[in-house]
# Entry
Amino acid sequence: MTATPGLPPSPAATAPEPLRSAPADATPELLRSVFRRHAAGVAVITAAGESPVGFTATSLTSVAAEPPLISFGVGTASSSWPVLAEAEHVGVHILGEHQRELAATFARSGADRFGPSTQWTVGPRGVPLLDDVSAWLVCRVVSRIPAGDHRVVIAEAVAGDFSGAARPLVYHEGRFTSLRD
# Structure
């Protein structure tokens, strides 16, 4: 960029280039490292089977308002996948900042996710609904799209409630945290 004669150069014209490291080849670890920098809301997805199943998700996305569609990713190696692969309906729970332990329970492999410390009821369409969440939806599964070692599930909301008063739980830098004002 050239300066106008008689005027000092603009700060943007003289600012040094930001230092960047050499690009790394795309690997699963690179993807995980990049997304640790991305703050995401925390949800728990549940479904009814012989026993209820559920897992913590940070991949929840609103897809469309008309019809009301959401999406989330689930690993096919997950203990929840066999039930989710067949489920007609799922529960989607938005967690509040006071629910770090609940998020950790549903994220932990081998945990008794619906044990005595988890308060829940059977909701619409037989879906397990967690108590005291910020908001929840019961959704009808529309499709399961293969995506590497995961499936992207698209589901249409059929019922819900958003009356919880909690501030959101957030996942960032590999830990559950809350928003700062």
User: Anything to note?
Assistant: Residues 21 and 30 are 13 Å apart (CA to CA).
